[in-house]
Amino acid sequence: MSTPTSDYHKPPVAPSGMEHDALPPGTRFGEFEIKRVLGVGGFGIVYLAHDHSLEREVALKEYMPASLAARGQGPQITVRSSSLAETYAIGLRSFVNEARLLARFDHPSLVKVYRFWEDNATAYMVMPFYRGDTLRQALAAIPAGVDFKKTTVMALAVTEEEVSGIGADNVQGTFTCMGYFQSLDGAANKQFVSAFKARYGAQRVTGDVLECAYTAVYLWKAGVEKAKSFDVDKVVRTGAPILPAVPTAFTPSGGSRANLTGASAESVTAVAEQRLSPR
Hints:
Blueprint: E1 6-7, E2 28-29, E3 32-40, E4 44-51, E5 56-63, E6 69-71, E7 77-79, H1 85-103, E8 115-119, E9 122-128, H2 135-140, E10 154-156, H3 160-166, H4 168-171, E11 175-177, H5 187-200, H6 208-227, H7 232-238, H8 265-276
Parallel strand pairs: 10-11
Antiparallel strand pairs: 1-2, 2-3, 3-4, 4-5, 5-9, 6-7, 8-9
Helix pairs in contact: 6-7
């Protein structure tokens, strides 16, 4: 895919509502001009953009994991720490591979990717812009609301980052599954989150990618100590135990990881089975 030339013009005063290191309105990438932010997730920012060549509105997604990287005075992305560089690079490769794969297909069940390219130490993909209601708007349009005590909703890959955008009141009582949650009630996790927010800002949300990067350091440490060597093959053969003080809610005896509501995996399953069982 060809790379649109970036023509970045940062206004003297950033417009109100600018956050999450988002690009300001008016930023140009070749024929694409940023209009506003549509949504922010744990791994990227989606903008409404105008395609000046084809005179149409498009959705432009930028790889921007806020827990791993930040933006300076221009469009360039900088990794927050050298220790996070490999994790950032892995995510970037995954983003590009996903865009490349989706660009090969044209199916109503898959999002269409018009263009994708790498620039500014990150990557971008351009997709169709569909007008419609957000989940928050759809729920607000239901007069009686949705009673999640009667309607079981199971969500995958929904963490505090997504909940902050959807609104906690709109998802209270639903179940979700993810490899890590910022709100896990464990001493190691509380210390981890507290230190992260103290350094990068109270509004920042930790995620599973950051947790894996943090955990990997302790896993390697445990392996080296048991193998008494830095040799990778020796560490692997030794098979170090996975019991370091990582930011999770697991216990050495095999305790259960908590979900957003603090309930154990067993209790979530029991409630779900009760609700879904024939009456």
